[in-house]
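Give me structure tokens for this 105-residue protein.
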Amino acid sequence: MLANAKYIMGADPTRKVSRLFGVYDKNTGLALRGTFIINPEGVLAASEVNYYNVGRNIAETLRKLKACVYGANHPAEACPARWEEGDKTLTPSPDMVGHVFEALE
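Here you go.
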């Protein structure tokens, strides 16, 4: 129940935040469902925007957050799709284009 929620909840009655993040739909007056990961420097590191009736996955959001942290600490490496902590990363280069699958084996 929301009465037992132990975390801060927010609202956007002026729609300022939803406009700032580009998720406000002026035709409906509603905000699309957005998740934004912003790094400590205030730079957008990852985002996901879903339509009103599409839910979000907290496990995937946490995976992306961990990948963003890893990438910030290892800037020469990249975390591929479905990367989990401890998995192999990639070192991007022009030679890797079209060969990511092989690089991960």
